[in-house]
C-alpha cells in the first residue's frame, strides 16, 4: 500500500511547514496541530510583529504601521530606526529588494493578519498553509535586514 501511495502521488514539490521560518512555525505549531488553522496564521503574524518590534526596539507602533516605518525609504530618525536590505545600497538588486519589502510587509498584514484576526470560522488547511508560507517569506526578509539607527 505504501508503494502504491508513493507511485500514485502527484509529482509535485511538498511544502513542509516545520521548515518555515521559526518565528512563523514556532508560533503556529500548537494551533496547527489542533486544526485551528486561522488562529495559527494569526499567531504567526503576531509573532512577526513581536520580533520586528524587538529588532527595532519599538513598542509604540505595531503591525502595518510598524512595517511602514521600518521599511520607509526615509533615513532613520531618533526613535525610528529603519530596516535595510544587506548589501551594496547602489546595487539594482538590493534597491529592488528594499522597495519590494515594504509592499510585501504591508500586504501580509492587511490581507493575512487582519483577516486572521477579524474573521470568524475556520480556514482550510491549504489556504492557511499558503498564508503561513507568505508570512515565512516576510519573516526571513525581516530577519535578514540590518537595522539602521
Characterise the protein shown here.
It is a single chain. By secondary structure, this protein is mainly α. 63% of the residues lie in helices and 4% in strands. It has helices at 2-8, 22-33, 37-56, 63-70, 92-118, 125-144, and strands at 82-84, 146-148. A two-stranded antiparallel sheet has the order 1-2. Helix 2 runs antiparallel to helix 6 (125-144), helix 3 (37-56) crosses helix 4 (63-70) and helix 3 runs parallel beside helix 6 (125-144). It is globular. The mean pLDDT is 95.
Helix/strand layout:
Elements: H1 2-8, H2 22-33, H3 37-56, H4 63-70, E1 82-84, H5 92-118, H6 125-144, E2 146-148
Antiparallel strand pairs: 1-2
Shape: globular
**How would you classify the helix and strand content by structural class?**
mainly alpha
Strand order of the largest sheet: 1-2
Reported for the largest beta sheet, the result is: 2 strands, antiparallel
The number of helical runs is 6
How many β strands by DSSP?
A: 2
Approximate strand percentage: under 5%
Low-confidence stretches: none
Task: Note the main attributes of this structure.
globular; two-stranded antiparallel ribbon; mainly alpha; 149 residues
Amino acid at each position: 500500500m505504501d508503494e502504491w501511495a508513493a507511485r500514485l502521488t502527484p509529482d509535485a514539490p511538498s511544502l513542509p511547514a516545520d521548515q518555515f521560518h521559526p518565528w512563523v512555525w514556532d508560533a503556529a505549531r500548537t494551533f496547527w496541530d489542533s486544526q485551528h488553522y486561522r488562529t495559527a496564521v494569526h499567531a504567526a503574524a503576531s509573532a512577526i510583529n513581536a520580533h520586528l518590534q524587538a529588532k527595532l526596539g519599538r513598542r509604540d507602533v505595531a503591525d502595518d504601521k510598524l512595517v511602514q516605518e521600518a521599511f520607509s525609504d526615509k533615513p532613520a530618525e531618533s526613535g525610528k530606526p529603519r530596516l535595510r536590505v544587506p548589501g551594496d545600497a547602489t546595487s539594482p538588486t538590493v534597491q529592488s529588494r528594499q522597495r519590494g519589502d515594504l509592499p510585501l510587509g504591508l500586504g501580509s498584514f492587511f490581507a493575512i493578519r487582519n483577516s486572521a484576526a477579524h474573521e470568524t470560522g475556520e480556514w482550510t488547511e491549504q489556504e492557511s498553509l499558503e498564508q503561513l508560507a507568505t508570512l515565512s517569506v516576510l519573516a526571513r526578509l525581516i530577519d535578514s535586514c540590518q537595522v539602521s539607527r
